[in-house]
Automatic annotation (TrEMBL):
It comes from Caerostris extrusa. The gene is TMEM132B. Residues 28-123 form the Transmembrane protein family 132 fourth domain. The keyword Lipoprotein does not apply. This is Transmembrane protein 132B. GO terms for cellular component: membrane. Keywords: Membrane, Transmembrane, Transmembrane helix. Residues 278-393 form the Transmembrane protein TMEM132 sixth domain. Belongs to the TMEM132 family.
Length: 418
């Protein structure tokens, strides 16, 4: 701008020159989050993040031009983007993570760029098995088909009725004939499976690796990969969900398969032995309530720890409580009864004082229940673990017995034991 002043004239004049420039714009890429966790490699389910493209002018005007833009990823082996720029995504075909994965966007003659942090799971996956040596359990026989596979006869509450011969359907006759092929064999121990891994990303400029949460943090991913668990030799062990159970002596592997390539992404050996272990005792815990406390972990920034406190006292009339039953074996291992197929055993619960506590029907529940009737305390419940009815004989002995301590107090005091 140039200005001239004429001070000799009584009427001063000002002459100005204005430079008018075009209102230029700049493309801006916007996403809800700049971090993506690649779980698609683990379960085959796409991970996506919505995205929009805006233009911002020097005059301060903002416009959404997502559908008028085009996008592409600098490296699709790390991160992918939809051509319409509506989302960035991971489909499981990626092979590495990155701290600076780039997305390029073009709108007319204008281009923009955005960077994302992509966390990749570390392979091979770590499989943890609570007991890698499974033995036979002395005296515990369970129903098996003639082919050696454990059978599910259905819970007692859903057992078939004894119909008259004239009313038996064809399917019922077929099931009855199958019943003759069921034999009772010694049951093997079982173990729980957990899968863990670390998530990492790489700075491609420096080659430096970073880990999600911490280098020492191995998040549990069992639920993500549970559908892809398998046993390499099903003659040796049987897999049900995340529980592996011995079938006959030998060695095999619990494996996690990749849903993308079908290859083994993690494995752990399990042995099934010929030795026999005994049930040393039952541990019966009365659970009337839970109290959850969450607090930050001092050693791992950004990580929180949850702590559960269990209440054992019945404080109101007709309050129901659960019985948590754990089986302890002679090799030092233990298994929750709730993790065992309910057709493999028969559970009896007797009360010594029906005026204090009563046993409630299980009705398909995994945990037996008791109900408070009146005040009292002591070892008032007698719990007996027996063979399944199909495998019981006239002189069959119980597998294990235990007494459960009951405390029924209708005062307002609540006692929690961590």
């Amino acid at each position: 701008m140039a200005e001239q002043y004429d001070f000799d004239d009584d009427n001063a004049k000002i002459t100005s020159r204005l430079d008018i420039q075009k209102d230029d714009v700049q493309a801006v890429l916007f996403a809800k989050s700049s971090q993506l966790l690649n779980t698609a490699v683990l379960n085959g389910r796409q991970v996506s993040q919505p995205m929009k493209v805006f233009v911002v002018s020097q005059a301060g005007k903002v416009g959404d031009v997502t559908l008028q833009s085009s996008c592409h990823a600098a490296d699709e082996s790390i991160l992918k983007v939809s051509p319409s720029c509506t989302s960035v995504y991971l489909d499981g075909s990626e092979i590495r993570g990155s701290q600076n994965a780039s997305i390029l966007v073009k709108y007319g003659s204008y281009t923009g760029q955005a960077h994302f942090l992509v966390w990749m799971p570390e392979l091979p996956l770590i499989i943890k098995i609570s007991d890698t040596k499974l033995s036979q359990i002395k005296g515990w026989r369970t129903p098996h088909s003639a082919r050696g596979k454990p059978v599910n006869l259905g819970s007692p509450s859903r057992s078939r009725s004894n119909f008259a011969a004239s009313s038996v359907t064809r399917s019922d006759r077929w099931l009855d004939r199958e019943d003759f092929d069921i034999v009772c064999r010694l049951r093997y121990q079982q173990a729980n499976i957990e899968v863990h891994t670390r998530f990492f990303s790489v700075d491609h400029n420096s080659g430096r690796e970073s880990y999600l949460l911490s280098r020492n943090a191995y998040p549990r991913i069992t639920e993500l990969v549970a559908p892809f668990l398998r046993v390499a030799d099903m003659r040796i062990a049987h897999l049900q969900g995340t529980v592996v159970r011995g079938m006959q002596s030998g060695r095999t592997e619990v494996q996690v398969l990749s849903p993308i390539t079908g290859r083994v992404s993690g494995a752990k050996e399990v042995r099934v032995g010929t030795d026999k272990e005994t049930i040393t005792h039952l541990e019966v815990t009365v659970i009337t309530g839970l109290q959850l406390t969450v607090f930050p972990d001092e050693s791992l920034p950004g990580v929180f720890v949850s702590q559960t406190a269990i209440s054992h006292k019945l404080t109101t009339q007709y309050q129901a409580s659960l019985l948590s039953i754990k089986l302890h074996f002679s090799d030092g291992t233990s298994t929750l009864l709730a993790d065992i197929t309910d057709t493999d055993y028969h559970l009896s619960v007797d009360t010594f004082d029906s005026g204090v506590v009563a046993f409630a029907p299980m009705a398909g529940l995994h945990h037996p229940r008791v109900i408070a009737i009146g005040k009292g305390k002591g070892d008032l419940l007698h719990v007996t673990l027996e063979l399944a009815e199909r495998c019981q004989k006239r002189r069959s002995q119980p597998l294990a017995m235990a007494y459960a301590y009951i405390d029924v107090d209708f005062s307002n005091n609540k006692s929690y034991h961590e």
